[in-house]
Amino acid sequence: MILKPLARLVALAALPLVAATSQAQSQEMAIATILPEDMSNNEVYPALIQFKNLVETRTNGEITVSIFGNSQLGSEVDTAREVQGGRTLQSTIITTGAMSSYYPDYQMMTAPFLFDNWRQAWSFFDSEWFADFMSGTVEQTDMRYLGTFDDGGGFVAFTNNERLIETVEDLEGLNIRTEENPGHVAIMRSLGASATPLPWGEVITALETGLADGQFNAPVLNTTFNFHEVTDYTTLTGHVYNSAAWLVSEEWFQSLTEEQQEAIVTSAREAIAIGHGMSGALATASWEESCETFKECYIMPPEERARMAEIATPAWREWIVNDFGLDGDRVDAFLEEVERVRVDVIESDMAAYGH
């Protein structure tokens, strides 16, 4: 449950006291996430538990890690602001919308049909190229990038009340609720659907009243929030890949010894790997549940996804360059690297296992 403003201030105020009382012996690293402190329903909390165990062991207790889930310390924007200072909160995990408000280049992650599968997504997000891409967060935000979680499993699925979406033509005439993200609106309109941007709290009501015909989210969310009760059909398209960036205060990070910094970085990388596996397992189980609870379910084949991508990607690029204002060459370099990784993953897998 999200704390009310006064309670959140009390929680934040208590954090430096913890650090101060133990300063002689150790550093305090407080991490905030909006997700529940639950080992089974999200990928972030189990990863953070492993991170805590690794860091505290590798530093012989010099760094003590505390995890604050369930939005205890506020929204993603609130916690990122605290992390920038690094005094009361040292780390947070924030999703695309909040991340883009601090580091506009992250809006490129809204590009449609970026990945065909998790192998490609993980190879891209865990690459040296992407780490270099995210290094700009240090200068622009005073926060250091540690890794990317697959928000809800990454790939999204449509749910709607009208029909099963099997081709791009099936989207024509549908009114789809999107996040309040102009990039998602541009994608939906390019595919022939109308787009109704709404905050999360209004989605169910919009579907019940007919304000929207459908929506898209990760299967984990579609099952957790019982979208089968307000929509009949679901299609796994993966047209958007949701992600969340893990950030740490640069000021705090630079106050650590080299050995402590190494413990933070190497432990974070292992935690990210655990998060990848957990998100894949949760998403797979949730899709199976979707097929049991929705009237009909469908996985869109690669050929139709490619058709949709040919339509949606140019429209998205036009929006992000002309309206959002990102540099066209930088956007093209990003898309080219995604394609390079796609080809490389296939070729390396076949070279190792297919011959």
From TrEMBL:
The keyword Metal-binding does not apply. Pfam families: DctP. Residues 1-24 form the signal peptide. The keyword GTP-binding does not apply. GO terms for biological process: transmembrane transport. Keywords: Signal, Transport. Belongs to the bacterial solute-binding protein 7 family. This is TRAP transporter substrate-binding protein DctP. The gene is dctP.
